[in-house]
Amino acid sequence: MFNIALFGAGRIGQVHAVNIAKHPKTKLYSIIDPYVEGANKLAAEYDAQVQSIEQAMADPNVHAVCICSATHTHADLIELAAQNGKVIFCEKPIDLDISRVRDCLATVRKHSVPMMVGFNRRYDPQFRTIKNQLNAGVVGQPESLVITSRDPSPPPAEYTKVSGGMFRDMTIHDLDMARFIMGEDPVSITAHGSCMVDPAIGEAGDIDTAVLVLNFPSGAIATINNSRRSGYGYDQRIELHGSKGLLQADNVKENLVQNWGDDGCVAAKPQHFFLERYEAAYIAEWQDFVDVLEGQEPECGGADGEFALVLADAALESMKQGKTIKL
Amino acid sequence: MFNIALFGAGRIGQVHAVNIAKHPKTKLYSIIDPYVEGANKLAAEYDAQVQSIEQAMADPNVHAVCICSATHTHADLIELAAQNGKVIFCEKPIDLDISRVRDCLATVRKHSVPMMVGFNRRYDPQFRTIKNQLNAGVVGQPESLVITSRDPSPPPAEYTKVSGGMFRDMTIHDLDMARFIMGEDPVSITAHGSCMVDPAIGEAGDIDTAVLVLNFPSGAIATINNSRRSGYGYDQRIELHGSKGLLQADNVKENLVQNWGDDGCVAAKPQHFFLERYEAAYIAEWQDFVDVLEGQEPECGGADGEFALVLADAALESMKQGKTIKL
Amino acid sequence: MFNIALFGAGRIGQVHAVNIAKHPKTKLYSIIDPYVEGANKLAAEYDAQVQSIEQAMADPNVHAVCICSATHTHADLIELAAQNGKVIFCEKPIDLDISRVRDCLATVRKHSVPMMVGFNRRYDPQFRTIKNQLNAGVVGQPESLVITSRDPSPPPAEYTKVSGGMFRDMTIHDLDMARFIMGEDPVSITAHGSCMVDPAIGEAGDIDTAVLVLNFPSGAIATINNSRRSGYGYDQRIELHGSKGLLQADNVKENLVQNWGDDGCVAAKPQHFFLERYEAAYIAEWQDFVDVLEGQEPECGGADGEFALVLADAALESMKQGKTIKL
Amino acid sequence: MFNIALFGAGRIGQVHAVNIAKHPKTKLYSIIDPYVEGANKLAAEYDAQVQSIEQAMADPNVHAVCICSATHTHADLIELAAQNGKVIFCEKPIDLDISRVRDCLATVRKHSVPMMVGFNRRYDPQFRTIKNQLNAGVVGQPESLVITSRDPSPPPAEYTKVSGGMFRDMTIHDLDMARFIMGEDPVSITAHGSCMVDPAIGEAGDIDTAVLVLNFPSGAIATINNSRRSGYGYDQRIELHGSKGLLQADNVKENLVQNWGDDGCVAAKPQHFFLERYEAAYIAEWQDFVDVLEGQEPECGGADGEFALVLADAALESMKQGKTIKL
């Protein structure tokens, strides 16, 4: 049984708390959160203890950390955990600044601590099926990837200021997905963005609508279609066209009931947002981290977190300059 | 070029007029209809002549008749055509009375005239695909057939009085379809009906909602689900379950556009009614009749028209007696 | 926290063990199974104790029983539990003999013990959505219900001898579903069956292919399409046609990925069998039982178990006599 | 009745011949083709005459020309027709050279002759439904358009040399579609291409796989996904995301039958190629030209043909320079 110290008792921390507690090989050992009330409540629910950062890092009973705290604390906590020999699970991103990310990863490497970055969508059963079928040769060589990724509704414009912008906050998932599916790293990126959903987002210096194009060494091309608002729930789809055919992962709907009536044939909307849509992914992701705890190489490690941020930064540069950025 | 005399210038006559005129091997030679204005109009549109029944039957230039007149005139016209050596296409039914049907078919046989009965759905590309795939062994031996057949909205209660009732008027198509798909004749039939759509239909002695079960010598079972009203267009589907799997023919929708929005994912309704849904079937049916004109054995002949009526009559008997009728 | 004594450590017992253990309000307290090795193994896995029937029934710490043992033991265990004041969850069927069922339910009533019968499909999110939408008036008054229910592959012919036959063993779920959806009890039933899947099943006196028709007081008609073998996984669908339209619950597929290639567009099969297909239903069912433990009236009680068996018996009678059986 | 002179008796000429002949208001008056045998054959089939270019242009009975000849002859024939006062229908492109296009259109304007360019996909019922629903406000303001357009299999590498390259030959349809759907002209274009299907195409200086991004004044963004080979038929889809939701036009399949079996649920492939997929579009397009003959303004005129070529040229430039081209 591995004891897990959970940093952050907010929305995503609670998702991991459930999965840590339900997994037969992990125990939710302690909760760390500056918002004491939240920490206490979550600890009570799972019969865990509340610790300070220092206590958790120094506690020899803590085998691993699960970092779900505010973004700007990630890199510091990663370094502390590495220095204290804790295995690390960290929610994306490692940091919004690429040099800070690199310093942090150097520390992790120095201490030879296994680290996994939480790009949860890699574990989604639909997208994983596409990856597996690609690997099994079902569609031959990949030629064209289309990722559709739209949030149900935009965050407050305030949030966009601290989020690092749409590319670093939202698109970063899709950039990682493109690398994951294609199995190679892009050689260039071109980004286009505009503000169509909420003028306040534009005034805050961000965009809410974007298209990105990634070129791969094989000649394959990936496109990412992003919006901060769908109007119909969480739109998460992937199409992979290969030399022998096409793989499509459609949205997961709230239910499979169709209603034929005067207005046509009405099916349910996609599941509303990431908690529902990626529930199974978060469970599979945690299983993967347990495998890391048991000695397996992380499938999605620090370098993946770094590369995704490099791509997000390059996308921003491309959009500003109106040209393709070579990587 | 075969000259066709068309009896009946109404809705279904007009469907055939188009197809006769467009087919490179048939010419719409003449129109016969007691409603002279309708006959004149249709004749003008296709550059055809208007004839009386006697003229058409006696005209050596008429190679074949296409009988689309009122139901009660079918048997007489068939006999006249047979006596005059015309090849016969007749819309279903031959007659609503089975003994009249048998007399009429005896006359046809006596004169050795080829005759085709217009069970148009046999020529629907979707259902034909099911038949072809069954024949190709795709699902093995047929075990269970489910026919769903609902009209968009009920006819006036008045109509049900002259139509011979729901089984003879509407279900007869599905009864023929069951024989067509299964490729064997049922050994028994059980029918259940009720009046749920329009009380006036019940007062007129008819039903508007029905389920029929047909048992086949092989042990296979077919069910027919009927309603005089769907609420969403013309519902025409078939499911065939065999020893190796399932074949499903879904409805043909008005278009393939889906609209994802606040109310869910909305697709178009099925095509409204038989003119739209079976447009391709009517064209293919006419091609088949041209093949008959050129010497091919009719795929759907007088005996098929007779058998379908036998089944409809037995269904009525079953419903009245509340028990299975052996055939 | 309610302590649950689980009778039966087999396949279905294990399904409930997981859900009992995961539910925050129930504890898997003890396992009872004549096959000691199985009981020990399951008890070890969940940190539960192994008890004899007598020990469990006498143990004041046991709040409720979950009966998942062999069918022929159900009625005895129910009566013992009732006599000992335990709240009862029992897998279907109560018994295969209707008079034994009635005696047993009389005992339960005498002791005023809440009892729930495990018709798990009522809790399936898809079918529940249909029921909810019907209740919300989405399709108006129900007129025609079509239940498709096919197992992926037949049981050994040996099993059919102890199962009470297809209607009592398999169709009973669909009979309960028809009552559940329609919200009224049928007034007559007509059943048709044949043996098409495995001749050994026929030699054992059973059928493997069936169609049943249920007539309701309102005039509505339900049909059930059954087979012991699908060739493509577990086929579990419902269609409800009402005065204003149609509700369809499609199969739940193994995944949502489509592969377009030379052979067409290939989607995944339905989830293989009931453990996968009804995983969510079993969880919701257990939640409902927890509500019963907390004082709520059981949604699906002894009378529902009794009525389903009455229908199965009547179906058998109908098939034998070749006529509709009034209820 | 309008008499039509058809230039070109090849594949696309034959498509128009059928539609000209079937339309009640047009007559296939004459065929003009340097390949005399082809012209004779087609003329015989439709009871038309064979003419030379000069005869057709001089013939006062010819009301309009339908230009389906080799691409390099289009501009000359358009000018001749304009000078002779014939109404003009011309297959795309007007010419592969933009200055020749502009000269040609100047001639047409000078003679005030109505001219329609054959971007057939505008008339596809699926895409037209999207346009109509957008106009009806169903999805609010357009924000993101995704066009998927893949041919079933690549042309011979030889062909790419005379075709003007993939953008001018194939993508030009999608460029026009983007303008048609969005209802505004793009302000910039970025193109990415590679050769993944056939190395011989690359050696001939062309590409076979491409992604294009178009930016519109409103901030909306369109992407085009192209390939010369799909592996599953003709892939022609459109997705339009707007401020209130999404419109999707799926592929038109060869049939609507699904086969559930051991390999999953298999549906038919998309209709193979443009003759099948756009059969209805060609008929609607011809109807639109008849409306032009009767005095209506062409919906898709010379300026549309010119703009599509400007976009294709800019796309080529963008790909070569690796940057966005402002328009």
TrEMBL record, chains A, B, C, D:
Recite the UniProt keywords alphabetically: Oxidoreductase
- Alphabetical list of Gene3D superfamilies matching this protein: Dihydrodipicolinate Reductase, domain 2 (3.30.360.10), NAD(P)-binding Rossmann-like Domain (3.40.50.720)
Annotated GO molecular function terms are: nucleotide binding; oxidoreductase activity
Q: Name the coiled-coil region(s).
A: none
Pfam families given for it? GFO_IDH_MocA (PF01408), GFO_IDH_MocA_C3 (PF22725)
InterPro entries linked: Gfo/Idh/MocA-like_OxRdtase_N, GFO_IDH_MocA-like_dom, Myo_inos_IolG, NAD(P)-bd_dom_sf
Domain called GFO/IDH/MocA-like oxidoreductase: residue spans: 127-247
| UniProt key word Hydrolase | no
Q: Oxidoreductase: is it a keyword of this entry?
A: yes
Residue ranges constituting the Gfo/Idh/MocA-like oxidoreductase N-terminal domain according to the UniProt record:
2-119
Q: Which NCBIfam families match?
A: myo_inos_iolG
**Family membership:** Belongs to the Gfo/Idh/MocA family.
Q: What protein is this chain from?
A: Inositol 2-dehydrogenase
